[in-house]
Each structure stands twice: as structure tokens, then as C-alpha cells.
Design brief:
Number of strands: 16
CATH class of the largest domain: Alpha Beta
CATH topology of the largest domain: FAD/NAD(P)-binding domain
Low-confidence stretches: 527-531
Order of helices and strands: EHEEHHEHEEEEHEEHEHEHHEEEEHHHH
Distance between the termini: 32 Å
CATH superfamily of the largest domain: FAD/NAD(P)-binding domain
Largest sheet: 7 strands, mixed
Radius of gyration: 22 Å
Structural class: alpha/beta
CATH architecture of the largest domain: 3-Layer(bba) Sandwich
């Protein structure tokens, strides 16, 4: 039995920024951060483009950033949340700069080199070459290491958050007063399931890109936090809005994850073209290659299908080589590694699953309907993104809500006691799994189902077929879960099936096309309806 004042599940930007906020305010509190691999492995480190913030107030403004966010969100953003993130964001960015985060500056070294990405009306993207997420993660880890009351435990896989359910009570999604008392987690080094009791728990587990065959997300992005909270009867919202990044690098050899060609490349002047060198984005949006991601991804998908191609192309041949390689060294080297010279060849690109706009429903302080439970980052649905996330708003959202959740925990934790009488994990009646192929094959089937039926373009028939196939996978996997001992692979499969169900069920409930959800049976129907809540 492990006891900690605050338990944080996940070590990306959401988890570490929340931990730092609490630790600085309350050195007397113990803060435990669980990560299922190593401390620096998270969705955060793979974010290339940057963090959006109004920096040059003489040219840019909060109103412009708010309007861009609302436009990208296609009518489903929460205005109060958008205003909170946009207005508080610059201060949070200044804070991580004070903690040591570096961002590129102009040649004079006097001002930051602000980039521009699709959907933004002004240059407001702070970046560190094409490794912004990596740099922010590095700075957060370094800052956390200076705070002695933060303990990071690596190779711990969170299985379930602990509620009254584990004390024998029957809980439904409408039960008032559900409380979180901590979590059960598998120690991957000892293969033992440990109990972590906490006065407050924060879920910061990132996204769920691995539910699709092609994704820019790392292999750890299996939606664990969303699935755990949903099983605990927490509210989940807007899961149908899965953002496919328009420009993942097409590699015929196959990769998992696929390599991201940042939207900043288009902001830098890259132009989307066909194999024959023809531009096509003007047919879909007057902003052309700098239209919001949902529009660009559907356009590329449509052109691929119309032409019978495997990919479209991003033309950077007209750009200055020295400037391009300085801004995008990682992208340049990756392209060269597969035989593509961006200065001589067009870069082959395809859309790939990139970001979850839906997730655990939270309020303006990161609180869920489950008491003593907070959530921060990509695993949440705060209302910021609506039906489609504006580029580079995700890191900003995590910083703002990490700050807000951290301060609210500090203000309320003294009135929250530890819960006594929590039982240890019961593994009685289970045996070691005999055939790992049952898990690996089900994972492959799941990815194929979601990619074929619940991808960029959907239909009622495809969604119905996906639900039927998912039900069979769910039944088989639950039987396996109830009869065999716990393994990370089995838990991830179980979580991915839950995520797939939530996406498909939410998509079936939305009888219109909006933002990232495009159903050809409702292609011309778009009317405001209440967002789906599961």
C-alpha cells in the first residue's frame, strides 16, 4: 500500500506542470507521478510545431486568437474556456521560459521567431526548431528534479482508479458523490499490482492515437486515462472528434508511429500538390494550404481517393535551403533517410490520426464529476477545441489547466482525508495467459476496424459495422481479462477497445457533419445540437 497526498498519472506537459505548481506552493505535500515507461516518454515530446500565444500585442490580440480558435472549433467551443486559455496562456509560457524552456529567436536575438500555422490569422507560434515538445518536456523534467517533494515512478501501468465501487457499492453514471481514492497500478518490473492511495488524483495520460492503424502518436498513446475514468462512471464528451493531421510522412516501408511533417512547414511556405505538381487546396478553401486541419485532411483524403494514389505531396523546393534546414532539421534528416530530398523532391504525405479533441469532461479548474479527481491535457474535453483543434493550442491548454488544477488542489486538499479500508487488488481465480497472439491479433483487428469504418470520412453503415465488430472484440477481451493475470498488453487492448467504442458511439449519435466528424449521410446537414456526453 503506497500513500501520497497527490497522485498524478502521466508525466507529459499536463502531469509535470501540475506537479510543479503543487510542489512549489506546498513543499509539505508528497506528490507521486506514475509513468508507464520512462519519464520523458509522452505525447508531449512528439509535438513539433510549437505553442500558440499572443506575444506581439502591437500586431496580434487576444480577440484574434479567440476568433481563430472559435472558427476552427466549428461552433462547438466553449467561449469562456477559450477566453481563459487565450488570455492566461502567455503568462504560462513566460513561466516555462523562466524554468528554462528555449524558443527560437530572430537573427537579432531580440525577439522570438513567431511562426504561423493553419487557421491562425497572425504569427503567434513559439517554437524550438521542429522539436518544441521535446524541449518543453526537457525543461519540465529539469524543473521537477529541483523539487524534492515530487517523486516520479517509472514503469508503472495504471489499471483502474479507485472509487466506492471497490468498496462494494453499485455506481452508475448518474450516481451523485462518486469519489476517487487513488489507483491500482501494475509495477512492470516486479509484475505486481500495487495500491496507491491519494487525497487527490490527477489523470494526465495523453491521447489515444494507437486506436488507428496510422498515427503520429507514440505506442504508449492507448487512451488509458479516458478508459479508466469512463469505467469509473466519469463523464466523457465529444469523442467523435478525432483530429487527423493532414501531413504525416508517407513511408511505403511502414512505421509506428508515422513521422509527422509539422504544420509549421506549410506556415513556412510549403504548398500541397498532386504527383503532377498541381495545387488543389484552392478547390476546398480560400486559405489553401493554411486552412484548418479538418479541411486539409479531408481534401487530401479526397484527392487520394479520386486519383487512386497512395499519397499527396508537400512542395518545399522553392524555399531557401538554409532557412528550411535551420527551422526543420529533424524533418529534413528524416526525409533524407527515406530517399527524399525536400530541396529537390516533393515530400509524400498522408493524413494520420494525431489528436483527440474529446475526452474526460472537465470544468474550468480541471475537475470531473468524480470528486477528488482532476484531469489535464489531451485526455480531457475542456471545451477549448470544440469540433476541431486549432494548431498549437494543445500545449497551451495543458499549461493553463495544469496551473489551474494545481492551484485548486492546493486550496482544497487540507480538507480531504485519505480513505481507509481500500482492499488490495484481487487476482484470485486467474491464470497466466497461454497465447499472446490472442491479444496481438485483436489489437490488429481493432486498428483495421477503426481505420476502415471510423476514419476521416464516415457513413451510417460503416459506423454500424464498426459497432458490431467492436462488440465481438469487447466480449472476447473481457473474457480474457477476467480469466488471466494482468499484463500491459491486455490492459492496453482493453483500453483501446473502450476508446474505439466511445468514438464510434459518439459518431453514431451525431446526426450531422461538423468539424472533424464528417458523415456522408449528413454531408449537407449542419445544425447546432448538444455535444454528445457518454
Amino acid at each position: 500500500m503506497n500513500q501520497t497526498d497527490v497522485l498524478i498519472i502521466g508525466s507529459g506537459i499536463g502531469g509535470l506542470s501540475t506537479a510543479i505548481k503543487i510542489a512549489e506552493q506546498r513543499p509539505d505535500l508528497t506528490i507521486t507521478v506514475l509513468t508507464k515507461t520512462v519519464e520523458n516518454e509522452s505525447n508531449t515530446r512528439y509535438a513539433q510545431g510549437g505553442v500558440a500565444a499572443v506575444w506581439n500585442e502591437g500586431i496580434d490580440s487576444f480577440d484574434k486568437h479567440i476568433e481563430d480558435t472559435l472558427d476552427a472549433g466549428d461552433g462547438l467551443c466553449d467561449l469562456d474556456t477559450v477566453r481563459i486559455v487565450v488570455t492566461e496562456g502567455p503568462e504560462r509560457v513566460r513561466e516555462i521560459i523562466e524554468w528554462g524552456a528555449r524558443f527560437d529567436k530572430t537573427h537579432s536575438q531580440q525577439d522570438y521567431d513567431l511562426g504561423r500555422e493553419g487557421g491562425h490569422s497572425e504569427n503567434r507560434i513559439l517554437h524550438y526548431k521542429d522539436l518544441t515538445g521535446w524541449e518543453i518536456q526537457r525543461a519540465l523534467i529539469a524543473k521537477a528534479d529541483t523539487l524534492t517533494n515530487i517523486v516520479v515512478l517509472e514503469h508503472y501501468f495504471a489499471i483502474d482508479i479507485i472509487t466506492q465501487h471497490h468498496l462494494g457499492y453499485v455506481i452508475t453514471r448518474l450516481t451523485p458523490g462518486i469519489e476517487c481514492y487513488g489507483a491500482y497500478a501494475l509495477n512492470k518490473r516486479t509484475n505486481e499490482i500495487e495500491t496507491f492511495l491519494a487525497r487527490m488524483t490527477v489523470v494526465t495520460t495523453g491521447g489515444a492515437g494507437q486506436v488507428y492503424r496510422n498515427t503520429t502518436n507514440p505506442v504508449i498513446a492507448s487512451g488509458d486515462g479516458i478508459a479508466m475514468v469512463y469505467r469509473a462512471k466519469g463523464w466523457v464528451e465529444n469523442m467523435e472528434f478525432v483530429q487527423f493531421h493532414p501531413t504525416a510522412l508517407y513511408n511505403p516501408a511502414g512505421e509506428n508511429p508515422v513521422f509527422l511533417v509539422s504544420e509549421a512547414v506549410r506556415g513556412f511556405g510549403g504548398i500541397l500538390k498532386t504527383r503532377d505538381g498541381e495545387e488543389f487546396m484552392h478547390k476546398y478553401d480560400p486559405r489553401k494550404s493554411l486552412a484548418p486541419r479538418d479541411i486539409v485532411a479531408r481534401a487530401i483524403d479526397n484527392e487520394i481517393k479520386l486519383r487512386g494514389e497512395e499519397c499527396m505531396f508537400l512542395d518545399c523546393r522553392h524555399l531557401d535551403k538554409e532557412a528550411f534546414t535551420a527551422h526543420f532539421p529533424t524533418i529534413y534528416e528524416k526525409c533524407l533517410s527515406i530517399g527524399v530530398n525536400p530541396m529537390k523532391d516533393m515530400i509524400p504525405v498522408v493524413p494520420a490520426c494525431h489528436y483527440m479533441c474529446g475526452g474526460i469532461r472537465t470544468d474550468e479548474l480541471g475537475r470531473n464529476n468524480i470528486q477528488r479527481l482532476y484531469a489535464v491535457g489531451e485526455c480531457t474535453c475542456t471545451g477549448l477545441h470544440g469540433a476541431n483543434r486549432l494548431a498549437s493550442n494543445s500545449l497551451l491548454e495543458a499549461l493553463v489547466f495544469g496551473h489551474r488544477a494545481g492551484l485548486d488542489i492546493v486550496a482544497n486538499i487540507d480538507a480531504v482525508p485519505f480513505k481507509n479500508g481500500i482492499p488490495d487488488w484481487n487476482a484470485g481465480g486467474t491464470t497466466d495467459p497461454q497465447e499472446m497472439v490472442l491479444i496481438t491479433q485483436s489489437t490488429k483487428e481493432l486498428k483495421e476496424i477503426m481505420s476502415s469504418y471510423v476514419g476521416i470520412v464516415r457513413t451510417n453503415m460503416r459506423l454500424k459495422r464498426a459497432m458490431d465488430r467492436l462488440h465481438l472484440l469487447y466480449t472476447e477481451t473481457e473474457d480474457l481479462y477476467n480469466s488471466t493475470t494482468i499484463s500491459p498488453q491486455l490492459c492496453e487492448l482493453r483500453n483501446l477497445i473502450t476508446i474505439a467504442y466511445l468514438i464510434t458511439r459518439s459518431a453514431s449519435m451525431r446526426r450531422e457533419s461538423r468539424g472533424l466528424h464528417y458523415n456522408t449521410d449528413f454531408a449537407d446537414k449542419q445544425e447546432f445540437i448538444q455535444t454528445s456526453l457518454l
